Each structure stands twice: as structure tokens, then as C-alpha cells.
Amino acid sequence: MTNVPVLERAGGHVRLIVDGEPFLCLGGELHNSSSSDSTYMARIWERLGRSGISSVIASVGWDQLEPEEGRFDFHVVEELLQGARSAGVRLVLIWFGAFKNASSTYAPTWVRADRARFPRADRGATPYAEPFSYEGSMPRPALSVFGAELREADLRAYTALMQHLSEVDAQHTVVMMQVENEVGLLGSGRDHSRPAVEAWNAPIPADLLAAIEADGVGFDQDILDLFADPSDRGVSWTERFGPGNPVADEVFMAWGFARYVGALADAGKEITPLPAYANAWLGPQPGQDLPGQYPSGGPTARMGGVWRAGAPALDFIAPDIYVSDGATVMAEYASDLNPLFVPEARLRTGDAFLAVGAFNAIGYHAFGIDDVRDESQLFVAMRQLLALRPEIVAAQREGRIVGFALDDDVEAVTAALADLTVVIRNAPKLLARMLLDVGVQLPAPVPLPSETTSSSHGEQPADPRPFGILIATGPLEFVAIGQNAVIDFSREGTELEVDSVRELRFTDGSWTGGRILNGDERLNILGTNTITAARITLLGS
Fold it and tell me: Which residues contact 412 (CB under 8 A, 6 or more apart)?
């Protein structure tokens, strides 16, 4: 394959290049089972083609790809390629191999049935309940990541997939690969199966210790503290830590999973050098404080250094964001060492603006894109953002962009943009207070419509928060897009005022000039519960 999609780095900024042009992955991830049935997907592709999004994340399951050992069936892959091309979107493929959400339900029957050849993980005498269980529930299989034959079998299937893509996807419909999904061990901090115990009794890997010594800045402080003693060299995990050390248990599992996933990524890139990443079930988080309560060894931000050392073929690790405080998670993952890419998230439109504008994300995807209705806030927003793709990508690289999403309890946020200070305020709260001061009371806000047509996860209303991005297009010129925000600028030693505001109108997929806004319309430049855009020029003296 020629001109394969690539991640291009300049300083601390990374962008995705597809067919020679910077590309923003803005879209969603399909439900887990959607891609298994082309009849189901036919109507979904038709809807996604109307949506205007740029990318879809879809799964390929090992159980469908290799139903019998050595016999490969690529019909799911072919159907995904055909469907994506018909919809005019690019694909990020998830390899649901041996591990998906810390279990092994996508491993083929011939793998799960042979426990001697493919050992199960053993949670040992664990204090944690069986994950995803209830009284009377059937167990979920979890294979041991330390099983050598499992890794070889998984690797053969994954490289067969990559080989097939190299032969049938010359137009680069697939722009990236996710290797496995939310790996780690639930129910215990450490695997106690036979191959895992053998690894625990073996010397702590010299490669891991060397990476910590060479580049401590990439490792969490508690990991640096864990290996600060030079006597670690040449001794086993069990000699150094023994039982009951949750940090050591998690690092041990992270090294095991990173080496496993990294081996697949490396072998796949030898065939087709598509960018590859691993995604994380977040942890620690409230109610999941210890490894094993969240998947121990997964590519969490805390284990990022271990994963970078253990899986250098991976281009980054990525967070799946289902918590309310998306900004904190994005800040943990976005760094010079790790570009931000969000493969799964709640249907919360403002977080897409936050990711792209505040954290230079190369992609953001809402989960369950199958259920999102045609004229949802999410689809409208992504069309509008993608119409500014060249400007956004250039502004990310040059540090000329600000992104925001204000939660209910936040009145305002402050950001720096070149030599200016920008204050972004919650317009509905601010205007309600200002108008009340002159005796005018605003009506109660109207409930926002649901984002989904139907969903197993229940109704999901549109995002009511103030959110948006602000791009500096000149010394005192800006483009703003978003909703419910009042924006003020200041610069030390200079008196600034708004010179002009030109409404931007979104028509036929592009932004054009509209009304010149003045008077009352300048009080709330970004519209009330409606995404709008404007070009702002300041006057300085």
C-alpha cells in the first residue's frame, strides 16, 4: 500500500495525515455487535452517510474472522469497507481478539474450549466480586495474557486481517487500528494462573527497569518510587514485592498486557503500517479505587509509562470517557508523549469541542453512533467543526485555539491566547442575572430534545452546557463557534473593545458570512442552545 495514513509529529503536536492531507476523526463508535450483520448495518450506513461525520469506529471479532483454526473468513471486513465507502466515511477498526472489556467472549470457540492450550486467568483469593456478575449469573471467560500459545494464535489472526487490508484497501478507507479493547484483569490485581505465576517468579524485566532509569519523566511517581531501589535488578517480582502490593501487581499486569498488545501491533505494522493504539477503561475512579476493581494492567494514564516501554509499536494510548469530568481525563492523556484520541465517550457534544480546542485531539467519537438521530446536536456540531478542519488543524499546531465546555457549577473559565487573556462566561446565567437587575425575568429553559432515536442505554438529551472553540485568525481577529457563551478579551496595557462581529452562516457544508451583529445581539455572540459561529474583530488602543 502507498500513502498509508500516518501520524505526523512537529514538536509536541501530532496530526493524522490521510491521503496527504491533515484529517480530523470526528464521529462515533458502533455498538459492539452492529458490524456482525450486514442487513442491520445497511440502514445504519445510509443514516451515517447523511450525518456528515468523518469517521466511524467498528469492530472485527476474532470469532467471526477465524471460526475454525486456520480458516479465515473476511466477509465482515469486506462489508465494513463497502458500507463505509458508501457512506463517505473513514474507518477505525477495533480488533476484538482475545480481550474485550477485560473478558474473552470474542475469542473463538476453539480457543475457549481448549483450557490446556489456552489457560484462563486465575483471580486467586480475591476480595473483589466476580466482574459483571449477579447472583446466579454465568461466568464470563477471561483468558490469561501470559499464555504463550494464546498470543501466537491471536497474532496470527490479527496479521491475517492486516494482510487482507493491504490487499483490498488501496483507497485507505481504514485509517487506524485499535488493538484489543479495554484490556486488563478484573476481579483481582494480579493473575495467579500457571503461566502468570511463572512470570511473577521470573526476574523483573530488564527492559522495564532500563526504561524507568532512562526516561523517568514518562512514568508515574509511584512507579518510580516502586523501582527506586537498585536491588531490583536481577531479582524476581515475588522476591522483590511478595504478595499484597497493588502497585507492583498492576505494573506486572500492565507489562504483560503491553507486551501482548504491542506484539500484535508490531506484527501488523510489518504488513501495513497503519497507526495503532490501545484504549483504556479508566482507573482508578470513584468506586473503583484499586487495580482489579478496574482492569488491572490496562493502558490507564497511570500505567502510560509502562505501556510506552512495553509496546513501542503503539502510537498512543486512548481513554474511553464515560465519567462526567471529561476535561480531567483528557488532561491526563494529552501530552507531548501521547496525542489525545477519544475512541469512546458519552453522547456529550461539548466534550468534542473541548477535546479538539483545549487538548489538540486528533479524534473524538461518541459511543452508540447507530442510535443517534439525523439532526441531532452531535451530528450538526460535527458537520460544523469539520467545515473548519483546515483552520482547526493549523491552529492546533500553532497554538491559536481554545476549547471550552462549562459544567453547571462553573460561571466562567479563563484561557490565554497569544498575548491575550480570554474569559468565557456562562451566557444563560450571566444574562439572566443582568436582565433581572433591570426587572426582566427570563422564562424557564425549554428541555432539549433527545440525541437518540432509540437506545439500550436510555434517552440521552442534547448537551445544554456552554461550549465551543475560539480560533485566532489574526492579531485581533477570531472565529468562534459554539453555544451559550459570552466571550471577553483583555491585554495588559491595552484597552480592547469589540470592533465588529460578523455572523457566520452554515450552508451546504460550509461557513459563509451573514449578518453584522450589533446592539443586543452582541450580548450573546454564541447562540442560546443552538450552535452558531461568528467572526470577531477587536479594536485596541
Answer: 406, 423, 424, 425, 426
Instruction: Tell me which amino acid residue 285 is.
Output: Q
Q: Is the dihedral of CA 80, 84, 5, 333 positive or negative?
A: negative
| Phi, psi for 48 (deg, rounded to 5) | -65, -30
Residue 237: what are its φ and ψ, rounded to 5°?
-60, -45
Decide: helix, strand or coil at residue 35.
helix
216 within 8 A of 224, measured Cβ to Cβ: yes
Rounded Cα gap, residues 402 and 354, in angstroms: 8
Q: Dump pLDDT digits (tens) for 394-449.
A: 999 999 999 999 998 899 999 999 899 999 999 888 876 655 555 555 566 667 78
Provide the 3-class DSSP secondary structure of residue 358.
helix
Q: Where are the beta strands (DSSP E) in 84-171?
A: 90-100
Grid coordinates standing for 258? 503491553
pLDDT tens per residue, range 271-322: 999 999 999 999 999 889 999 999 999 999 999 999 999 999 999 999 999 9
Q: 26-50, pLDDT tens digit by residue? A: 999 999 999 999 999 999 999 999 9
CA end-to-end span of the chain = 56
129: pLDDT strictly greater than 90: no
Mean pLDDT of 50-58: 97
Would you state the torsion angle of the CA atoms of residues 298, 303, 306, 308, taken in this order, to the nearest 10 degrees?
80
The answer to whether residues 528 and 427 touch, using CB atoms and an 8 Å cutoff, is yes
Residue with the three cell numbers 504483560: 256
Give the residues across from 220 on adjacent strands. Answer: none
Longest CA–CA separation in the chain, Å: 79
